Amino acid sequence: MAVSKWETGRSAPDIALLEPLAEALEASVVEILKGEKIEKERIVPASDEVIVKTMKKGKHRWRLAVAAFIIVIIPVFMFGLLLALSYPEFDFLRSVPVKDEERIVGTVEEAFGDTYENLDNLRIVKEVRKADYYFYLMQHGDGVIMAVFNKDKLFDSRIALIAGTGSTSPDEIGLYSMGERQHKINAFFGYGMTDESYSYYYRGVKSSKKIDDEYVLDVLIDYDHSYTNASIIYND
């Protein structure tokens, strides 16, 4: 079968077999490779040895190239992949499915567990989505936590926690401001509201917001690089 493949050109003898094969056939390596008889006068002295050494060197170089690829290129690629995954825009490793409330709550519990002791009954009471941001107001035994998640850049169905703050004072509006990439975010939040509305200043204009229930979660996002800070108006 092997000889048939050599004869039809589908394969060639292994380099290690060339010299023994040439000796057995009383031919030269050149003749075996060429596939025809060559006049002795046309065969360069020591050509068999030169050809075999050259082919072995070529095979050795190929093995070195493969080894270099495995030793150098693959680790570099893996390092680059890990670096990309750790970059803020690639949040997959620290993200959760946007529809999985249990894991969203669990992420906030883990992040704020050292700050608040009574988080056993943490639950989402209000949610606001704006652009690629998800804002959650969560109630726990001692107050509320306002958590900000950002949509993963590669996986639209996943979000990652990027910021948050809490409040333990009922019937009081809190304001959380943050700069995120090209946006400035102002988030109003609170719980246990007894008033029907609250007021604030934003871009020099006084505005009022109606309180629909006992929870407040309202978000303003600047998209024009103005980075405007809002401020709460507290009634005397």
Largest sheet geometry: 5 strands, antiparallel
Distance between the termini: 100 Å
Low-pLDDT stretches are: 42-46
Number of strands: 11
Strand order of the largest sheet: 1-5-4-3-2
What is Rg?
36 Å
Shape: elongated
The computed structural class is: alpha+beta
Number of helices: 5
What is the share of helical residues?
25-40%
**What do the pLDDT scores average to?**
76
- How large is the share of residues in beta strands? 25-35%
Order of helices and strands: HHHHEHEEEEEEEEEE
> Multimeric state of these chains?
single chain
List keywords for this structure.
236 residues; alpha+beta; three-stranded antiparallel sheet; 32% strand
Please give a structural write-up:
32% of the residues lie in helices and 32% in strands. The chain is built from 5 helices and 11 strands, in the order ααααβαββββββββββ. It has a 5-stranded antiparallel sheet with strand order 1-5-4-3-2. The protein has a 3-stranded antiparallel sheet with strand order 6-7-10, with no helix packed on it. The chain is elongated, with a radius of gyration of 36 Å. The protein starts with a helix and ends with a strand.
